[in-house]
Design a protein that fits this description.
The structure holds two protein chains of two kinds.
Chain A (H helix, E strand, L loop, with lengths): L4 H18 L2 E8 L2 H8 L1 H7 L3 E8 L1 H13 L7 E4 L3 H8 L19 H6 L1 E2 L2 E2 L2 E13 H6 L10 H11 L7 E4 L9 H11 L16 H17 L9 H9 L3 E7 L2 H5 L10 E5 L12 E7 L7 H12 L1 H11 L10 H4 L2 H4 L4 H9 L24 H16 L5 H18 L5
Parallel strand pairs in A: 1-2, 1-3, 7-8
Antiparallel strand pairs in A: 3-10, 4-5, 6-8, 6-9, 6-10
Helix pairs in contact in A: 18-19
Chain B lengths: L6 H29 L3 H4 L14 H9 L2 H32 L5 H10 L9 H10 L6 H25 L3 H9 L4 H12 L1 H17 L3 H4 L8 H6 L9 H21 L1 H8 L6
Classes of the chains: A alpha/beta, B mainly alpha.
């Protein structure tokens, strides 16, 4: 049989076109191991069906390891990751450095205006949205309604720190192993310093003045630390200086805390199947001191594209899928509304079904009451509620966190801790060139 | 004639040995017990030594959420590959240092050992860049090279110590019988030092298997071994100890079995030449 040249050419062109149509772009997504991210990996069939030309590979790492690996890759322009999971601390810094791709050109159906304003503000630099929020959180008071009732008290929706102290005193029962209040004490910029920095905002304190001078020698910080140490020493659990999120979660779930002030995402854990007090939990806004700022933070785990990625379009398609309204509906249809990633979209909170989730309203109110661009009573030169969005903060926060944790452990007084913090931060800020 | 130990002394010595062994093994035992607990039971205070709710759920979850066989295979290739390559370089090097020492041999050995005193993170960025630019990043070959270089000083030191125990006269006799250098190393030296080489090999496989800095820094998806597998089960928010313990147990089980079956060889090699 003879095959003509024309037929051969036609077959070649057809095969080439078919090959191109089937060409697969592989993207690598770096993420942390938390419930919402694991759930997303379980729902990948939906993405694969909609985008058969994009193959997604996952790298799941412990939070600090992920931060180290992604920072190394992005700083060296490695391009190993196409989508990265980053927090509100990194976005302003990396966005300014030009390390992230702007997401301003997401399709109109994405409805960027639906993102919660506080969350969107924290992910935007100079008008560019550099990351799409996957889930957002603030912090709030979780308390035992039964213990409050037994003490003859009612928790206001928007308590003051004085209310918290009064409730802690009333609920503490050492014989029954019930601590009035459980707060973070473990050292770390994302552990005790996330809590204490947010708390200090409500006491009128700030890390730096407008000229980057450290402020730990000011009366507002002394009031913050004195109050925290007294509260924890009188009504907190033993060994609190070792307690972070997970340790306090365990204590609360076991019924050993009257109150716990921590991340809003904890609400689903304390009311979940592992909790022995699931049906006895109430929620309130983080406390204030009447100065116009509450002691709650703002955080969002978000998806961003490193500018070094060579699969920008595919990465953007993935982010669009993972953070749009349809994804929330997909999770709701498969796993129920209580498991939808919270804290990212206004439309979620106007959904009647989601409104039935007991902690939905308080989560939204908490997020809305945090303002990362104007976090403190007095003016500051930085962005961030529970952190200062400068590269030096990870080191500074951990150093100060260790000092304050030692004070909680009784190894130094509040005055000594504040003096040490002031000296350490001053040295570092001088070395970094912020101050002379 | 040596005096026989009294039964009381023997009993006390055995008891002390068991106590020390239990202390050393306890973290592993605790991890294995935790892997069969529920998350709530795993973090219970006071700790529950024997949980009331034993479960296999953690293993099922870990297995279903990760591609364990891929991580396992990567660990096998990386640890065995780096060790064999290291031995191929270290045997001739240790031979030269043991039998044809120069004026600076001791200095050279000390210098090699000193590289182990440098914190790994100090060379992280340079090595990261080298791996990226040479295409070795996230490849098994890259990790074989990295771990081989990391463990080479230990391999050379161990082999040097074993080779020094072998009388040089035997090698000299082989040379007088006309053996080439290659034959001398392969047919005379290696069989005599086999217990030492075997224990060096086993120890380095274990070191490479357990390495958890470079194997996480220099990989993403394709070459990631079991260290990365474990790291993926640590959670910033939420309880994870039971699942992490299950992942850790699955990661150490193969090397634990290898160590168990080869313990005689290991002990023989590690005490090689200790008693003449």
């Amino acid at each position: 049989m003879k095959i003509s040249h024309r037929a051969l050419l036609g077959a070649t062109v057809s095969l080439t076109l078919a090959g191109a149509a089937l060409a697969e772009t592989t993207i690598t997504v770096a993420t942390v191991n938390n419930g919402d991210m694991v759930r997303m990996q379980g729902l990948m069939d939906d993405f694969n069906a909609k985008h058969p030309d994009i193959k997604v590979e996952w790298v799941t790492l412990e939070e600090n390891v992920l931060r180290q690996n992604v920072t190394t890759d992005i700083a060296t322009g490695g391009g190993q990751y196409d989508v990265i999971t980053i927090g509100t601390y990194e976005v302003p810094i990396w966005g300014k450095q030009g390390w992230l791709t702007s997401l301003n050109d997401l399709p109109a159906e994405y409805d960027v205006d639906d993102l919660l304003p506080a969350i969107r503000g924290g992910l935007t630099v100079d008008g560019n949205l550099y990351a799409a929020p996957f889930y957002g959180e603030s912090s709030m008071v979780m308390y035992r309604k039964d213990l409050m009732e037994a003490a003859g008290l009612t928790m206001p929706d928007a308590p003051t720190w004085a209310d918290i102290e009064k409730a802690a005193a009333a609920m503490t029962n050492r014989d029954a192993e019930i601590n009035g209040v459980c707060l973070r004490g473990k050292a770390g910029w994302g552990e005790n310093m996330a809590f204490l920095t947010a708390m200090s905002n409500s006491f009128g304190a700030r890390w730096f003045d407008e000229n980057w001078n450290p402020q730990f020698d000011q009366p507002e910080w002394k009031a913050t630390l004195d109050f925290y140490l007294n509260l924890m020493n009188n009504y907190g659990p033993a060994g609190a200086s070792n307690n972070g999120f997970n340790e306090n979660l365990t204590l609360f779930q076991q019924g050993k805390c009257g109150m716990w002030i921590d991340a809003t995402v904890a609400a689903s854990f304390v009311t979940g199947k592992d909790s022995t007090v699931a049906d006895k939990v109430g929620f309130a806004l983080a406390p204030d001191n009447g100065l116009g700022k509450r002691g709650n933070w703002l955080w969002a785990w978000s998806l961003a594209i490193p500018s070094s990625s060579d699969a920008q379009d595919a990465a953007k398609t993935f982010i669009d899928w993972a953070t749009n309204k349809d994804y929330l509906a997909l999770v709701a249809s498969k796993e129920g509304w209580a498991n939808v990633p919270p804290g990212t979209r206004t439309s979620l909170y106007s959904n009647e079904e989601y409104a039935k989730v007991p902690f939905a309203k308080m989560t939204l109110d908490s997020i809305n009451s945090a303002d990362p661009t104007n976090p403190t009573v007095k003016p500051v030169p930085y962005v961030g509620v529970q952190f200062v969005a400068i590269p030096e903060f990870q080191g500074l926060g951990t150093t100060v966190g260790e000092i304050f944790s030692a004070a909680l452990a009784g190894q130094k007084t509040a005055d000594q801790a504040l003096a040490e913090a002031q000296a350490a931060v001053t040295d570092e800020m001088k070395a970094a060139g912020y101050i002379q | 004639m040596a005096r026989a130990a009294s039964p009381r002394r023997k009993f006390l010595t055995t008891l002390a040995a068991w106590a020390v062994a239990l202390v050393i093994f306890f973290p592993v035992l605790w991890m294995i017990l935790t892997s069969f607990k529920t998350e709530a039971s795993a973090v219970a205070m006071p700790p529950e030594f024997l949980s009331a709710d034993w479960t296999f759920e953690n293993y099922e979850t870990v297995w279903s959420r990760s591609d364990y066989p891929r991580f396992f295979w990567n660990s096998v290739v990386i640890s065995v590959g780096s060790t064999l390559l290291g031995l191929a370089i270290a045997i001739p090097a240790a031979w030269a240092m043991a039998f044809v020492p120069g004026k600076r041999t001791k200095d050279l050995l000390m210098w090699m050992l000193s590289t182990k005193m440098m914190p790994a993170v100090a060379v992280m960025i340079p090595l990261y860049l080298v791996f990226q630019r040479t295409g070795l990043f996230d490849t098994k070959l890259g990790l074989v090279l990295a771990l081989m270089l990391m463990n080479l000083p230990i391999i050379i030191w161990m082999l040097y110590t074993y080779f020094k125990e072998i009388p040089g006269e035997i090698l000299e006799a082989a040379r007088m019988d006309g053996a080439s250098l290659w034959n001398e190393i392969v047919y005379v030296l290696t069989p005599m030092a086999l217990p030492g080489i075997a224990s060096t090999m086993l120890l380095n496989i274990i070191l490479a298997w357990n390495e958890a800095f470079w194997t996480i820094v220099l990989t993403t998806t394709k070459a990631a071994p079991l260290s990365a597998f474990i790291a993926s089960f640590s959670a910033p928010q939420g309880l994870f100890y039971a699942k992490l313990s299950a992942a850790s147990a699955m990661a150490i089980l193969p090397i634990l079995i290898l160590g168990w079956f080869s313990q005689k060889q290991l002990v023989r090699g590690l005490t090689f030449g200790a008693v003449k």
